[in-house]
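1st attempt posting a full record on here, be nice pls
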Amino acid sequence: MSLRVMTAADLDAVAALEAEISPGPWTRGIFRDCLLAGYDAWVDTDADGTLRSFGVLSVGAAEAHILNLGVHPEWRRRGLGRAMLEHLLCRAQQLGAERAFLEVRVSNLAAQALYHQFGFHEIGVRLQYYRNKEGREDALVLSLALQPSLSTLSES
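the predicted structure (as tokens):
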């Protein structure tokens, strides 16, 4: 994995990937606003610099919120989503978070399985939270207590 901080130069590629993989995608402007707000945002690229995955994290008041995480379809099931999630959780702890939260579409069973493998558990449901082609979709709200052992995980 070739991780680096997301910059303004990445916004077009990140927004294009988001539009490809999400039924209710964030816009380029939303990603730009995340950078301007100082959120912890990361990209992973291949040897040619092509975007493979991205992640956006907000941390404050000892809480981390994984706001967005995406993997290019051609690179799925190769551990990139797991590596990005691991990196975001390590960053959350480095930035003082004691607990992490995220929302996931009820239809996204692959992401739910990954989050459960990390120890996330459901704490609620946000009704009609996500946009999709059919209208709206519920989100599961997941939470994870960050353990000291997470700080020793690799950031690569």
